[in-house]
Fold these 2 entries.
Entry 1:
Amino acid sequence: MTSIPWTDWGQTKPALTGRMESLLRKELSSTTPSTAATLDDARLPESALAPAAVGDLGRIVGPGHVRTDAETRARHAGGQAYAEIVRRRAGDAGAAPDAVVLPGSADEVTAVLRACAEHDVAVVPWGGGTSVVGGLESIRGTHSALIALDLSRLDALLDVDDVSSTATFQPGIRTPAAEEALAAHGLTLGHVPQSFERASLGGYVVTRSAGQASTGYGRIDDLVVGLRMATPVGELVLPAMPGSAAGPDLRRLVLGSEGTLGVVTEVTVRVRRTPAVKEYEGWMAPSWEAGQEAVRRIAQVGPHPDIARLSDADETRVSMAMSSTSGRSRALLSAYLRARHVSEGCLVITGYEGDRADVAYRKSAVRKMLRDAGAVRLGERAGQAWVHGRFSGPYLRDSLLDAGVLAETLETATTWRNLPTLYADVRSALHDSLGRALVGCHISHLYPTGASLYFTALAAAEGGREAEQWARAKRAANDAIVAAGGTVTHHHAVGTAHRDHVGSELSNVGLEALRAVKERLDPLGILNPGKLLPLA
Amino acid sequence: MTSIPWTDWGQTKPALTGRMESLLRKELSSTTPSTAATLDDARLPESALAPAAVGDLGRIVGPGHVRTDAETRARHAGGQAYAEIVRRRAGDAGAAPDAVVLPGSADEVTAVLRACAEHDVAVVPWGGGTSVVGGLESIRGTHSALIALDLSRLDALLDVDDVSSTATFQPGIRTPAAEEALAAHGLTLGHVPQSFERASLGGYVVTRSAGQASTGYGRIDDLVVGLRMATPVGELVLPAMPGSAAGPDLRRLVLGSEGTLGVVTEVTVRVRRTPAVKEYEGWMAPSWEAGQEAVRRIAQVGPHPDIARLSDADETRVSMAMSSTSGRSRALLSAYLRARHVSEGCLVITGYEGDRADVAYRKSAVRKMLRDAGAVRLGERAGQAWVHGRFSGPYLRDSLLDAGVLAETLETATTWRNLPTLYADVRSALHDSLGRALVGCHISHLYPTGASLYFTALAAAEGGREAEQWARAKRAANDAIVAAGGTVTHHHAVGTAHRDHVGSELSNVGLEALRAVKERLDPLGILNPGKLLPLA
């Protein structure tokens, strides 16, 4: 991790293809390449953490695990929202916490919370650092200082129960490590968001993440069966229960709590046998509407694939431009699609993971529904192309930022009936705000009652005013989403980005309920201030 | 409804078969028949509701909808727990509310809550009256009086969205009426608990009900997509969202809230196309252990049936004794089972609802898993026998009470690994407490990580001390459940029956979180006092 530049997602940045560059030239205003500041350039304030607090925290976690050095602090200066990245690229690490504290056990987490309460220090629980909604912003509020509570040392698989198909982890484990540990038991969690390589299990839980295979495996909400959470007033312990009617399901109060109520110290999740077969294929739907009708039927009638994605025509165009297919293959594909009247079509990806008979049965039924909707099969190569690029988004963003392109995403969800309106309105809002822009969208999480919409916006970055440029677009999109009855976030959480709009979904009484819990469990308000709940 | 005796579940009571009578004679201590008091015998106190409150409430809902007559009050004197029934059978309607108020709209509910706050009147929200955990007990606490807020006038289907597969109902609708309204649109909710004929949709929501087909259709928790709830501080509005990460899922705070936080006034649920095919069949597993292994595999590997039940040997014996099969058929069946070495076996019922191809696929896969476990197919007649009797439990209880038999049920759930211990411990606790007793058990709700256990206990009633007799057994069972790591309730809610044990599952911090919400939304504590949360 430490060898990755502090501004970047990974060690490598994919080159933009020639076709992608020409698409950007054609569709966006002219762009100015930009370079990212290195760690040596990072400007950050002195740590405001009092020496007495440093001492007390060091006695709890060991002095080596209270880090006040510039590099560690700068690497915790916010998450992965566009505004945070451009800030760091400009050398501004002003958002750095006053210290990074790395507890080694659940008891140490509890003790750290107690010490922070005593010293009036705000705490930002820190998993993989991948929040794209400002969930990791250093908002000190009225407190004397702020620490990032980095959970990366709490990365163990604690228990596997293969009779009950559950596994218990510490919260800081990154997904590749979790999957590797499970694979040794022939098991998998199957939770695969785009942030897969860096995000932590605890982060998934508190942000209500949905993985790329959520259509088959379910959201993280559906996978959590038990939890422990340290709070300033004691430990919340929710033992693994397959089903219960013992009051409201308090796991669901932790899911989505974004570190404002406590720090998750243990998570028991449902796991599955490693699938014997994984098959992915691409299809081309003749239109966005026809594709929507197909995926709706797949979600409601079943059986369904584990992965189902439908890109709109613009996103399909961008995907094609970024694909590594040779010119000759592309020409053949174009001719093939033109002959089948889907040349301006919408890409569909389906994926199946399971045993051979199960995959064959589901694939056959889904194929029929796709054909009924007029979709044309592109085959497994298109599926594999998606698999190959499924985690490339954040890497590509770094390349786009270097090229002077604003690149950001947002997501929403609504009922099937409401989806077309929501789609049109958010798209318009982004186009109206950004001017010349490429705005693509896909549906990637199917439910019987509706689906998510995931937008990607590309525009020429307004050098020096990148954050404001996106903030305007984001506000326009949020307003459009709320007006059209969508959720302000399907799987990225609230953080600061959706704080002012969350009340429209939860209502004032709902916010009051959350405030009441917050005040009871965190009476001094030290936990992740300024996140989730609208500011008073 | 009014023509049903106030002590009974229905207008008819099934006769006990001769074989059932001889089984009871053989296994229980000697019983003394008992008769139930009629409404004319019902003793109840004067209404304590002040005339000013009656007047104000009448101005809100109409004077005819504030009922203080003895019959209406007596018919709201508690729910369907054994202790409540025996109390009514003895002519004791002391648990009657001071009035029954029937609002005609959500706005009237809000106004009633406001008036009750003004007049210091406790409110017990009342749906179908079927709580078996004391959820409808009249616990006035320190308040001046107590009303039952009967929601039966709020029984409309408000909206059907057949694009999104959702339907919006008022909370008081009973399930047969809801299903009839949906059937006109070719739709079904598929939520079918044993209380189906009388229970209300709002009741399902606030008690976290699970229907007999929950393995296929999901619990009510999974079916609710949107909600409105009137509270003393305003309305909680949670619009229908297929998926969201906008903070904790507050629907889950309403689910299981048991009328302690507010009154649900609108519920949007997921619905499905009416299945083309419904098929049920019976199997005999060679043992409880083999049956468990089979249903676990069904739940974890899939595909699964919509209904899957496994009875232990004792429950299988009782089912056989109550079946209407002729002596000759029984003898043939016994010979058939003996020849296949499952004569002391455990009955398995599987049910499939869907389109023809889907049902055929699932049935074939499940049959193979049952055969692998050594189960022998009894066929569709055994499945139909179960269908025929699936709602008969509460009727049969009335007959058993007449015969002087204590008849009560309780349920729990745990992980698959923990299930055998939980089963053995609860069974022992019931036997130890009740002495000579018939204790049967079944698994009827499968999850990938575990399952529920549903116990039925029959014993000779201790005339005049029935409530104490069961309270002892229930306490022993609750203690055993908690000690073995099960939930104190899988789908009957907490009420008063599990109030003292719920803390073991939610932990003190969890209880504090619930108390905080309760105090914020219901600052005067008028909503269903004494339920769900342990008494201070």
Entry 2:
Amino acid sequence: MPVSRSLRTLADLAALVSGQVVGDPGTPIAGVADPRQAGPQDLVFLLDPKYAEAIGQSAAAAVVVGVEAPIPKPQIVVAKPRVAMARLMAAFAPPAPFTGIHPSAVIDPTATVHPEAAIGPLAYVGTNARVGAGTIVHPGVAIGRNVTVGAGCILYPRVVLYDDVQLGDRVILHAGTVVGSDGYGFVPDEAGHQLKIPQMGNVIIGDDVETGANVAIDRGTFGSTVIGRGTKLDNLVHIGHNDRIGEDCLIVSQVGISGSVTVGDRVTLAGQVGVAGHLSIGSDSMVLARTGVTKDLPPKSFVSGFPARPHKEEMRRQAALASIDRMRRDLAELKRRLDARREEPPR
Amino acid sequence: MPVSRSLRTLADLAALVSGQVVGDPGTPIAGVADPRQAGPQDLVFLLDPKYAEAIGQSAAAAVVVGVEAPIPKPQIVVAKPRVAMARLMAAFAPPAPFTGIHPSAVIDPTATVHPEAAIGPLAYVGTNARVGAGTIVHPGVAIGRNVTVGAGCILYPRVVLYDDVQLGDRVILHAGTVVGSDGYGFVPDEAGHQLKIPQMGNVIIGDDVETGANVAIDRGTFGSTVIGRGTKLDNLVHIGHNDRIGEDCLIVSQVGISGSVTVGDRVTLAGQVGVAGHLSIGSDSMVLARTGVTKDLPPKSFVSGFPARPHKEEMRRQAALASIDRMRRDLAELKRRLDARREEPPR
Amino acid sequence: MPVSRSLRTLADLAALVSGQVVGDPGTPIAGVADPRQAGPQDLVFLLDPKYAEAIGQSAAAAVVVGVEAPIPKPQIVVAKPRVAMARLMAAFAPPAPFTGIHPSAVIDPTATVHPEAAIGPLAYVGTNARVGAGTIVHPGVAIGRNVTVGAGCILYPRVVLYDDVQLGDRVILHAGTVVGSDGYGFVPDEAGHQLKIPQMGNVIIGDDVETGANVAIDRGTFGSTVIGRGTKLDNLVHIGHNDRIGEDCLIVSQVGISGSVTVGDRVTLAGQVGVAGHLSIGSDSMVLARTGVTKDLPPKSFVSGFPARPHKEEMRRQAALASIDRMRRDLAELKRRLDARREEPPR
């Protein structure tokens, strides 16, 4: 596992997450782990009380908890154990795999690479592109003309940034992600053939955005496709041209958003959702997995189904659907009974 | 925005699209733009009358219209403004980012690259491959053995063409697209393990085809997978082995087509559609978003739903479905009323 | 077609598949083909009796059959013609496109590449990585730190293996596949922003696994994401973090499996299926195309629909659904009749 092995004390780690130490503050910690694989210098996390006993029996050195637990090990008590876990795991992240500019990378002479950025083997940085401090560009990445990459970004292998793309700071793009491909715009010409509408806009990605692997984000036709600060995309997501996605959204794997869609802030689109073009989805909405959104959604919508409708309504509909075969039989029976009555003598 | 700034006159541009100039034919034009961002030398487009006033108030130098509009600016009047927009945008497209063969590219000595083709940094051209005139091969593209790429093509970064793939002229493949991967063919062996059926065919892509980013097009088992002239694929589309897609089709993002499917000409498969194997979809069919096609479709089909059915029928079905919970309640009420009658004295 | 032209006799080929020769055992065979394209030295396959006549009229030299057929050509008779086809096609597979280490590849000095492995142009092999005997690494592949690739693997162009990934023997990964990207794990921090949970695990892929193009397989948060021996993934599949997929499974194109899912052995997930997180799918289950799995499935399940239910039940439900519009009309008619009765004079 890629966990660095430099020792820290439990007290040092508690300070990173504003936690209280219970037990020996000098307990040496070398890494973080799942309780099932933990070694005697590993820190583990109690996220669900039902695992307390298993953690007690594990080899782990210490445990992070929300309230002091009946576990015979030193503990760090924090308000939010899951948030503390995220921060403590980050503290043990492996070092960057590259520093400086690898001799096999191709950097256009007009590009500006910050001296503290790392450009890995066989990467390409194009004309007038700029790469910020602390950014890590992995092998095989291709950065186009006039691209701006902020500070502290990670571009995993084979990411492609087309011309004019702008990335904020601390953006993470996983391998194979493509940013700035042409939007899907065609118009039938006089002969009925599809004529390409050139896509002259760009893509602007805010600070702290992350995408999964093999994501595709199209550039605007005119103007920009925008992904707001802090929004997280999962693998194999499609973002259409001129979409404007808000901040702190969660867009789960294989979601497809057609062109010119506006998504507010803190919206969740769960796995395999599809959104038709030119729609608006209000802030704080939750769109459940596999929903097909065909109309605008107001803020705080909570929808499912295809076409999307309020989830409670969809649940009632699903319950009725589950009994539709019985309904059909009941209906036939009622008809039979009513027909039988008609045939009674007209007394 | 990647728009070149060489000046042209309004009259020159009108000639490109067989338009009539209203106002000063010498008006200098430096680019095309969205009215909201247009500068004083930009040409804009009136595609919907409701934007006439906004365009009148914009900084734009001139406007392309379908009929002369009450806009106090020089105008180009054309029969089809959207078609004119496509052509005029293309006239202002940025120059190719590369010319010649970059020294970091690897060209097999048996490959033939036309002197007017451009091979970008860190691209690879394999044994006996041929690349035509005016074609642009972006960084990191990998072209396999015996591949033919026609003239005027654009292969964006990290496109992969497997051995024996044939591309026509003016083909555009966006970043991450894979052409010629093995089809999904396995057969259980004597021990029940899945044995690979080697995929010995290839892929043939016609003139003027475009694919989006991260598309996957499988080679034939024997023979060819074929994408017909002028067909346009969006991002993240899957094309199975031995599919034969016709001409001028629109295949929107995240569509999946199983193997051995035949699609006619001018067929639209909207976003997230799935098509089962060995089917035939007739020419001029429209398959709406998220439809699951499970049977052959005759020409001019207009279908939706899963399983796909005529869209009118699916609309009626959806309307009934929307009231299914009320139907269930009505049915219970009818049953109650009928039961109550039964219990009446038999007068 | 990429078929080598070295001649073999029919008898040699029959021996490869334990078949019986009918006719001249010395018949020279240069390749395998589809009957429609077969030349006079090609071997073809009779998989369906209805093609017997067409094969008889083809130019093919000989035919592989399940029982001796009335075809006037030399024959190889085998128990399982489709299995024989797979093996005989493999016997004519083209030679590897590369041998040795291409001078443009970048191999970290700490990496170990077996002398019989081939590393293609512009590929990268990272720190402490190991590549086994007979493995072929195509152009542009990126192999991270501490990765182990077994023997006889094929990594097609632009495959990415993140740090710590482990591949067994004879693994085939098609172009653009990403193994080991971060799982989708975030937790809201004190300010409501999504905080990344670092993904410290890895991916372990068993022997004889194959993936299609542009697949994305996430690493575990802690511990491993596992793909079992012999499992085959199609194009554009998403595998979430900490999934444990069993052996000999078939996971068809565009399937998405959320995190922490357990899939047994010999499970088929057909095209565009989605599986919610933390579920278990029992061995020998069949999940039909476009199914949405929302609950655990016992072994030998056969399900379809969304939410997934037993296929027979879903078929009845679909049949009822197909008549829902008539049901609605019948219900209205019954209500009218019952209302009419109520209005009868109270005789």
